[in-house]
User: Fold this.
Amino acid sequence: MDSQKVDMFIIANSKYFESHQVIQVRDKLLQMDDSKWGIVQTLQFKDPTISLIVSLVAGSLGIDRFLIGDTGLGIGKLLTCGGLGLWAIIDWFLIMEATREKNMDNLQRIL
Assistant:
């Protein structure tokens, strides 16, 4: 894979991954076959900042977990009203990392 394309991808999408994962993503993209490049460019990543805002506004309803694809946890939060509020508060600190991990999982599935 062309390193210039990979570097542009990293610049445009680095906010969707943890800082320690960016180097790993770059290495995997450089080793990737050119035929998968179109698929990688069309991937839609979840924005961690949007997840945090949704968590602050409607976290006790589990909408933040539904947004990133954690359906089971979303149902659990919905049924327990965010763990009586405690789970919702904890997720304020964890939701951005969970979103970035889901983005990494989606990328690794393609690679």
